[in-house]
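Every protein is a chain of amino acids, and every chain bends into a shape of its own. Below is the pair of lines this work produces for a single protein:
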Amino acid sequence: MLLFKYISFHYLKFFFIILSALVMFLVGFDYMDNADSLSESANLVLIYLVYKVFFAIDMLLPLSLIFAMISTKIFLIRSNALVSFYSLGYSRIDVLKPFVVVSTLVIILFISLHSLSSFSRAEEFSKNIRKNSAYLSPTKDLFFTHKDKYIYFSEMLPLQERAEGIRVFSIKDNILKEVIVASSAIYRDDSWYIAKADIITKPDDMSFDSPGMKIKEAKSLNILEGFRPKMLDQVYEGKVNFTIKNAIDALFLLKDQNINTSAIKGALYKIFIYPFFVPCLVVIIFFFVPISVRFLNVSLFSFGAILATLLFWGILFMLIELSNNKTIPSEIGVVAPVVILFLIATRQWRKYRIRR
């Protein structure tokens, strides 16, 4: 227990130091690059920096966990603590366990943060502040399908949960049957409420003897049940930074309509599977480090371990982006690399556990 507390303390200490340094580095350079394009409002600048911090944490936290493990291992080697632990009868697995347990717990906390919209959509919000001086900009000209209807919103304001310029086209047997025209709609009680609308009905017979178009006024209409404003904004604008709840709801809702949900699956894989490359890589790198400086060029090892980590992270990040753009399936871009890494880490774990 003493071993676990000692290593965990130093691991968390190095983790917070490295994460803070990397986040300040990224946010500082971003601010210097975009300071001229930001609003003069101090409040907006502060909100912009907060969202940039969230984005930096989202990107750099997995890397910081691995770098912290490398730093902690080097610290244990330089202080001869590692040799002392082995002399007292502790095995390599005993020394490794604190790194795996702590990194896994931090990853679980990291995943839970994606239930917050301000964290998972931080980069989107910061871009809106830089371009529009508002963290949530209206979505214009939104056209999509829902069940047997085609819906058009000329403008949607997710924050106010309101849409303007509504057109709902009802299609049957590939023939237009009815059009609902409304100036605005409000999201409430899990559906979109239209207070007043005109319903234009097209006759089946378009001959000269047909009665022509019928227009009637209707009140209190409800459409798009289950489609929340933020879900509409993300799904039909092709955005990939979902919160956990929005992604799961969108997945089940669109699956029932036989709509391609690969982008949403990719977002869920990125949230729940991608971060677990960290404990796997921690296990793999751990066993490559000798127990004493006599067998180790510390500078060379640190450089090699950091370079290998950055290389793998860069490849994984590239595969995720390819998955987001639907160039490759998300199962290949996100799931497969982490599974392969997990198998390698499991093999290493079993190999050294047997040697105990």
